[in-house]
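Exercise 7. Predict the structure of Carbamoyltransferase from Micromonospora lupini str. Lupac 08.
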Amino acid sequence: MSARYVLGVNIGFHDSSAALVRDGALCALVEQERVSRRKHAVGQPPAEAVAACLAMAGISAREVDTVAIGWDFRDIPLGRNRRFTTEGLRAMLFPDDEDLTMPAVRWVPHHVAHAASAAYSCDCDEAAVLVLDGAGETQSTSFGRYADGEIEILREWPVEQSLGFYYNAAAEWAGLGYWGTGKLMGLAAYGRPGPGAPVRPVAGGYELVRGTPTAEVPSRRAATLGPLMAYYPAVAESLKPEFGKLFPYAPRTGEEPIAYADFAATIQQGLEETVLSLAADLRRRVDTPVLALAGGVAMNCTMIGVLVRSGLFDRVYVPPVPTDAGVSLGAALVAARECGEFTPTRIDHAYWGQPITTEAGEAAAARAGMVHRRLGDDELARSVAGELARGRIVGWARGRAEIGQRALGARSLLADPRSRRNLERLNVLKGREMWRPVAPSILAEHVSDLIEGPVGEPSRFMLAAASLRPDARLRVPAVTHVDGSARPQTVHRDTNPGYWALIEQFRQLTGVPAVVNTSFNLAGDPIVNSAADAVDTFVRAKEIDLLVLGDAVVARSEADLPS
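Solution. The predicted structure, encoded as tokens:
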């Protein structure tokens, strides 16, 4: 029997992506922004991501049996008069193959796709499922049960009650922009929460507190630019009076964002209390020790840390790409299961993207006039660890790229966590606000040396905040946030042996089992994907001292290469 390929796609308004599944097992997942180099790929179909997935699997579009779409948008136009007809989908996903007969199409409701991305990849037979995002077709929050291979949605909340839009709107109010939710979360650590967050738990759920009635949510047919553009302004506008009570200045009045720290802390606390209440209600309804989360709100690592430490569930699982980019995976798994018995991939690492080879790295370095030296695995780990200990900043790009918004040791900027100055250096070179934190990558075997309390599985993907031990805060000041927390990534030898070996060498040199890890990109850019992307960033950011591409160490001159 020949292999059966399902291509999952997100063709929503933002974060388009493609995931290729072979007999239920994940082969590749690529986010469109990584190949198009346009942050969040707003309005872009995932054609380049589709091509990249097919190329990695070594198949053509004609070998795809089913295309699964992580939305049910059959009645909604996309853009100007462009509908999801068979030919429209073919042109959107396979623009260079006009003779292709479009594979069968499976439309998967957005929250079902989100739920499947977590439930089918967590390697368990039963789980409670919680989806938290901006907007699906008509819903914004869902919870349900996964058992016997089936996902049952037990309850939904409408878009007017969107926790994702609540947080997006708060980020805009603080002058951080719609996409500034991560910044708002980081800013919250600097403030003191107070009463009055316009979201609160209520019996049987939660509610947003709005100063004005929400304008009528447009019908699905009227949402010509997708639900984000159609729904968000009405929700955000209704929250502004409540935001004004917390911080009575209109956004963009010249205030520095740090002035909104108490506002951010209050918004964050409201989210945490609400989600904790939802999780408690879900646990009462679904008596299982496993919680699987997805949706863009699951990127809030402070909230996920609270859930992990709450003890409501023995196990909390979040896939590495819980955002809309992850619905390509969820949709593919839903369609694959409908084709018959299958064993989905247990996702315990994030390295499903496109690879960087040493040869490609050397060629890219040569084109840019850079010098390079190829090293064996052991020598590379020792050499780079020594350079980090000397205070140098290293761009690290090896193997297959991570999926998701966190750099996890495949496309990372690395530094010594013992120097607080390295936080400032990284924020300057990346063009970020000086109050934003960076994260530690910690050897899994030594996580308790630095972190107190549980970190759970989300720490594999840098998705749960935790408290640093008081003594560790003095040892690793570069990764210690103002409230004593950190966003750790636990590094496991079996899933990224090269990165693990580097940190182990650094531990042997310094006694510290961690390095600073932040995403390899500059402000406004997606994380680097190819060797050419990495070299381009290295050329532009003079503060990066060395670049590792595969097994090659790249420098601007022979004198800069490790001795």
